[in-house]
Amino acid sequence: MPEAMLPTEVVLGAWVAAGLTLFIYSFLYKDNPLFKLGEHLYVGISVGYSVVLAWHTVFLRLLWEPLQKAVGEAPASPDSYVLLIPATLGVFMLTRFIPQISWLSRIAFAFVVGFGSGVAIPRTISSYILKQIEDTVNPLLTMGAGGLTMGFDLAAPQSGVNTIILLVGVVSVLFYFFFSVEHTGAGMVTARTGIYFLMIAFGAAFGYTVMSRMSLLIGRFRDLITFAGAAYGYATLVLLAVTVLSLVGWELATRRKTGGASPE
Amino acid sequence: MIFLKRQLPLAITFVMGIAFTFQYYIPHPVSEDAITNVSKWMQIISGFALFLGLASLFHVHAVKITRQVPGWGFSLALYVAMIGTIVIGFWSHGETKVDGGQTAFGWLYDYTMVPLQGTMFSILAFFIASAAYRAFRARSREASVLLVAAVVVMMGRVPLGQFLLPWTWDVTQWLLNVLNSAVRRAILIGVSMGAVALSLKIILGIERSYLGGGRDQ
Amino acid sequence: MKDFARRMVGIDRRIIFLLITAAILLPMLKPFGLPIKVSPEVKAVYDYIEAMPERSVFLLSFDFDPSSKPELEPQAVALLRHAFRKNLRVIGMTHWLTGTGLADGVFSAVAAETGKERGKDYAFLGWSPGGGALIISMGQDLYKAFPSDYSKTPTQGMPVLEGVRNLRDVNYMVSLAAGGSGIEMWYVFGKDKYRFEMAGGSTGVIAPGLYPFLRSGQINGLIGGLQGAAEYETLIGQKGMATAGMDAQSAAHFVIIALVLLCNVFYFMLRGEQGRPR
Amino acid sequence: MIPAALLLLLFWGGTAVAAPPLLSPPEGFRVLDTPNDAGKSLSLVWKASPSDSKNRLVQVWAAESPQAAFNKVAEFPSNTRYVKPGDFPWWAQPAGKGDHYVKLSSSQAFPIENGKRYTVKLLMREGGREAWSDVAGGTAAPNYFNTAQINNLVFVLAFTGVLLGSIAAARRNPHVPLRRIAGLDAVEEAIGRSTEMGRPILYLTGAGDMSEVPTIAATVILGEVAKKVAHYDTTLKVPHRDPIVMAVCQEIVKEAYVEAGRPDAYKDESNFFITGDQFSYTAAVDGIMLREKPAANFFMGSYFAESLLLTETGASTGAIQIAGTDSDHQLPFFVTTCDYTLIGEELYAASAYLSREPVLVGTLRGQDFGKAFIMGVLVLGTALATVGVVADVDGVNYVLDLFKDFK
What we know:
The structure holds four protein chains of four kinds.
Chain A: H1 8-25, H2 33-73, H3 84-93, H4 103-136, E1 142-144, E2 147-149, H5 160-176, H6 186-227, H7 235-258
Antiparallel strand pairs in A: 1-2
Helix pairs in contact in A: 1-2, 1-6, 1-7, 3-4, 5-6
Chain B: H1 2-23, H2 29-67, H3 72-91, E1 97-98, E2 101-102, H4 104-135, H5 141-156, H6 159-164, H7 167-203
Antiparallel strand pairs in B: 1-2
Chain D: H1 2-16, E1 30-33, E2 41-46, E3 57-63, E4 71-77, E5 100-105, E6 117-126, E7 129-132, E8 136-139, H2 150-172, H3 182-197, E9 201-204, H4 213-232, E10 236-240, H5 243-259, E11 271-273, H6 278-292, E12 296-300, H7 306-316, E13 320-325, H8 331-337, E14 340-343, H9 345-355, H10 358-391, H11 397-400
Parallel strand pairs in D: 9-10, 9-12, 10-11, 12-13, 13-14
Antiparallel strand pairs in D: 1-2, 2-5, 3-4, 3-6, 6-7, 6-8
Helix pairs in contact in D: 2-10, 3-4, 4-5, 4-9, 6-7, 9-10
């Protein structure tokens, strides 16, 4: 196999990435300094990244540049300065941690939360309530060429039998979350039906989540396998050995210090 | 002062809330312009809100370092990583690529942040397996139903399951499209009603905890 | 016998971790390649793009960050390959700040592979704060919401955006979502008012919660998790990362199923002894 | 038949040389301002005809003023563009059911301005034959209210009324009957067991901030748990990931101790901040579970991927675990790994049930009214829709349209 020459920064990157990945996986053995280091680096780097991007996007692109342009074009017009309103409110928001003037942040929050609540009400009713009712209320029978028929095809989501199942499911689960009456008699039957529906949906979600998490693992392993190649100087394999040895060393050192009990 | 601290925020919430609830029903350009401008303002304000979370992080770790509590070295590592990233980021003008070539900032992103974030979540794959082994029991009829549904979906969503037991594919499709939809829809309706109720209470000043502090403030 | 069961129930979970590692690693090193079935919800997305005329406007929103990269990146790549092959004008963006670099990388890579030009065939607008407010803002005036794209080129006058004033001029939109600020938000603040057709691609975790929207037609298709990505790869006839991962996925699922079954076997063996446990 | 047709063709063909034969022109053609919009758009309406077909084309010709020349602005087959059921509610239909309806928006080819009168006529074409409709005029204007969405507004107002009413009722009598919630009985048991074993109680309020319903519910339940803890004199530990939630919880716990008559036993340190980062927080809480082995773990509020890491570790220490969350994507894990789980809205209900605070009880009742109403609509609506199909009557739509989402 001919060895492709990779640029130095790519090889270096592979070593760093593989090392950090293995540090984090060392948590599977137990909580340890390597994991803690990886985790703190992760927080630090993502915060740093957010700061840089937020600065360039919010301050420069949305605030500074439009303001500069507007003021440059019409310095006398008050409209040019309108962006100072949200900027001021944004600064108010940051006063939350200065106790003497933290009340200023309430004004900013009031603005954001008020807008958010107002915007949400009609849209929630439209998309999450009316639209959902609309799709649940369907005729159970259809008028076909041969007169009235009811679809018994389970595989067709819109068939009559599935319409009934959907209706029973929605109503019984809604009833389970109905708190004004005690679940006795007919109510109990409905609520129990609701629970079974809930459990089936949770089961399906569990199965789907397993799939999701395994995919993430596959993605990470794919990188580790790539980095184990000769082109990358067998980064994964070397670093795996280093990680394992460090863990053993750490374990021995702490055992000696605490007299047998390993720390958590 | 009491007015500024207490009534003014409530008044702003009320006015904004009512105005933008009704905005939805008003197609007139005046109303459209209002939402265009205010939504842009919100973009800017929420940009600032991002720094709110950062401030508390800064504070917590600064305290750890100055007091030298156990593990303060990790806080120091966090600071170094954060400041390093910021410096490199500004040095690269916030660009990850320039003329097709990667900047130092882009390198940092690709080789540290991407693997770290991805790995953190992939750990859950292991925990989901051990949870499945230790906790996933048919303790009751409800738990059994959950278990069977989970196993069927796990089968039906991968090629090996579809190959060995082809019916799991169809059953999975039906479970997701009909039973699961019904439950999600009911939850959605219930939760949305909760959300609308909360929004109404916020607008009307009945619910004030978002302003922080005690509930009477 | 019961002793054995008890020992097995209390087994060190690190042994299970090793089992999972093996289940994923072995098929990746030696794949067995099973055929992939295509579900109607994925086919719907494919069909819609397939039927779009050339130079239609396709908006792809990357609403995830690196933590969901393995699931959603293959979806993004497959969708982009398809859109570029159909000569659509593609607009990219993200609501997730930390996903920006990732999204830009995917765009550049697929564009380079298909010989498409930034600014002419596609635009990557980058990240902007606001969530729902950003969508409303884009729905009213795209150029106010994004005065410049990710590489700081002014959006006004970009050839790819010719005739696009706001979201109403978008023909199709797909949100690739890993959580809250994704598909539902795009529907509630975007499609509901600005009337473009849209679909979703999501991680497995949130996919089941999106089925009510699929049923009611609020989204016209749904690509769920790695399996969904593999289905899309099958449809465009270009196998990629997702198809390659499906064998490992199969193996891991079967290990979990085996673990669940074992757990229950031991549970029933021990049940008599402890009375009826809770 | 054929000779007759031939004859007809011959006859018509003969006269066609002189003047094209007349097609029946579109009837009842009207131009109106598009209803419920922001202006700059006109709507065209005319009656459907049985002879509409895909071969018969309709062209729209419009002029900027009665004097100006007409330009062609659109063309489509005559059997398209109808008022379809579901497009408009019965109270806001621009034309009768089955009529033709075309929305003409302002475009570069034909800009439409508000307040200006435009004249429009239609041309019908089939083969070589043509027919013009009457000329009609209309003026575009922006509207102040979208009447198609009036049902949405009625919902908002009615729900506001019900909510305020039930909160007022709950203020008068907060002890309205609420159903028993199974998980809540276990709270007392868990606290009792902790006391017996002399181990602490761990209480988490979730990932959300104070603007989220589940977090508010979690803090309210914390108050009730703290009262019992104060009574039994057990240790309570509440690690936080949001400084504001922590400040709120400190006040709530303090109040609870005072109410339980044990202000001396209150410690500010029982609420403490760890970090806002998801996994650092999780690792730290897992550490607390393993070191201090709490006898009871409470997980209330909203959770994300960390849920399983927390409950799995908690289960391995043998603690009684009680969860309550509306994060539906995490519920499967709580249900499988915890002893009791308050599912979704049960969490909100639990906070009302325990605290009997009028606002919470009232909100719960208000939502119950809403749910009862929706359940009724679903069942009766399905019945009505079925009747509509069986009896083939359109009248049911007068009711069903009320619960549809229109734009």
